[in-house]
Amino acid sequence: MIVSSGSFPISRDDRFSGDTRKDNREPGQRDRDRVLYTTAFQRLAEVTQVLAPDEGHVFHNRLTHSLKVAQVARRLAEMLGREQPDAAAELGINPDVVEAAALAHDLGHPPFGHVAEEELDVLVTRAGLEDGFNGNAQSFRIVTNLALRSPKYSGLDLTRATLNALLKYPWMRGPTGKQHQKWGAYKIEQAQFEWARGLCPDGDRRKSAEAELMDWADDVTYAVHDVADFFRAGLIPLDRLAKESSERDRFLDKAFERRRQEGTDSELGYPQPELKETLARVADFIPFDERYTGTTLHRSTLRSYTAGLIARFMTAAQLHVPLTPDESRIKLDPDSHKEVVILKELTWHYVILNPSLMKLQYGQRHTIRRLFAIFNHAARNSNLGIFPHAYRELIRDAGDDMALRTRLVCDYISGMTEHQAIGTHQRLTLLSKIIGSPSSTHCKERV
Length: 447
Known about the structure:
The structure is a single chain. By secondary structure, the chain is mainly alpha-helical. It folds into 3 domains: 2-49 and 60-209, Hypothetical protein af1432 (Orthogonal Bundle); 219-356, no CATH class; 362-446. The chain has helices spanning 27-36, 39-42, 62-83, 85-91, 95-104, 114-126, 135-146, 160-166, 178-181, 190-196, 209-232, 238-243, 245-262, 272-284, 296-314, 334-352, 355-380, 389-398, 402-414, 418-436, 438-446; strands at residues 2-5, 8-11, 317-319, 330-332. It has a two-stranded antiparallel ribbon with strand order 1-2. A hairpin with a 2-residue loop joins strand 1 (2-5) and strand 2 (8-11). Helix 5 crosses helix 11 (209-232). The protein is globular and about 65 Å long.
């Protein structure tokens, strides 16, 4: 598909490197395959979604989540292409592009998830990088810069359409507000960012239609599958929410109170009375009146329940060719959108903010903080022995650019699996203790 920008045409299939070689696949299919085979994607198998497997419960990790987001996003794009062919053609909907962006959307997710994302943002900003750290921007950095596929160019050299579809937040970091909290690319990738956004009119900060489909698939998958995971684990009481209005009231009251204290109540998007009605409607369809025990009936019922929710939310999205610059390219059924908001908030309330998890998160923050202190000090002082060979080379190439050295440290830490982060922290801190201990000094003197 060719779009116009000013006086010259721009192809959605362009690649930043200018590579025009073709094979038996469509450009979007090649993008999808390139993401699938990168080590950054494989790493997601050891990055948890919310909780790591424990006591026999198998939770989603970032890899299984990404695969399911990709499946939902592709089926959604295919369905809308059949049902609204004219709008799909006008908006340039390509299922391969939507799937490729969905597979890539969490590549930048650091070990320990949002805890590490917040901690790295604080640490990198304090170190002098104004655009900090964000998982979405890191995903864009990986596919445009860090991932290796050819010695001829950086990154995966994805098409312009796929890069644009990956941008859930199509702007650089702003000084305040939403654009300060979530953004799509760092200044170091500004050239690739602006190139990808060349598919959109100048000044248009709306995400592309393909990005909107990917984003909705992400919300739906996260909302439904996390609730199912944590109901099985006994953490989200779907059975009580189905039977007890008092449990529903307590949940909503605490959720809104917490959001007000944090100043994030606007993120819920709807007033409390509306969400109370939504929660009652959601509760009416919960097929459980007792806690989950893993019986054949419970397993099959839960699978049917989640499948029904996915199907309902799939049909909630419709393509919309905007007539004004502030209109979205995807229209969502308001009732379904509110239901997804409620399901996501259940995970926040009953799981993420659970006191036992908060203790674990304290240790995770400490691990990230300590790793950053050690590696950033080493990088800025050219003590590169503790880095892998690939990062030693990159840091040397950065020369006297200390900001780039810090960015590379952040790349290294955020690209670890959780086992790697914990193991590296243990080895480095143990080594520090050994070197600094009286017994080690005595041994060195004897030698």
